[in-house]
Amino acid sequence: MAVLTLRGFEIHKGFLDLDTQKKVVDAVREVVKVAPLFQPDTPYGKPMSVRMSAAGRYGWFSDKSGYRYVSEHPNGQPWPAIPEPVLSIWNQITDISRQPECCLVNYYAPDARMGLHQDKDEVDFQWPVVSVSLGDEALFRIGNTTRGGKTESIWLQSGDVVVMGGDARLTYHGVDRIKASTSTLLPKGGRINLTLRVVE
Ligand code: SIN
Ligand code: MN
Fold first, then answer.
1. Confidence check: pLDDT of 170 > 90
2. Which atom of ligand 1 is closest in space to residue 133's alpha carbon?
3. CB distance 114 to ligand 1 below 6 Å
4. Is any ligand 1 atom within 6 A of the Cβ of residue 106?
5. How many angstroms does the Cα of residue 195 sit away from the middle of ligand 1?
6. Residue 97: CB partners within 8 Å, gap ≥ 6?
7. Residue nearest to atom 2 of ligand 1 (CA)
8. pLDDT, tens digit, 9 for 90 and up, residues 97-112
9. pTM value?
10. Which of 18, 68, 72, 140 is deepest in the core (most CB within 10 A)?
11. Which residues does 101 contact at the CB level (< 8 Å), separation at least 6?
């Protein structure tokens, strides 16, 4: 298994074998049965192209009042617990005993994308964000710790895990596009991205 470092992001290529990827997808299916995917509006009033859900104490939400963590799904129910196979990725890849409080679930249909942004709604940036890619390949773009400047991109494949921490914790990143039909993991295609975060 290769680990690449790009602008301070640690990219663990092929961290999850196929069997583990399937177990994680099954666990995500259980999460979205209880906490169905929804399409948040950006604060600017445009719907995001990804569909989202979450597990853990907190989920992430956005509407015209802004971006924030919330303790309930829009349906008023608490988020389900973070599944064990997902927590196990955090525990294998970090040596941090503190456990994540949010597993954000992003589903990218073939035409979805995510603009360059920083993950900065958490209280303490000493904790990394751990990102898991499942399904179709995504062109992941990495910028700088301030907006603008040159960027570099890398294709993320199913089973890759990215650790965004240390000096790169506030580095801008986003997903330019998905390459449809590049994985058979999800029968209907598309990509699931999980991000594990310590929120409080
Ligand atoms: C994110 O930045 O929250 C998602 C990154 C990704 O989909 O790889
Ligand atoms: Mn992010």
1. yes
2. 8
3. yes
4. yes
5. 7
6. none
7. 174
8. 999 999 999 999 999 9
9. 0.97
10. 140
11. 56, 57, 58, 197, 198, 199, 200
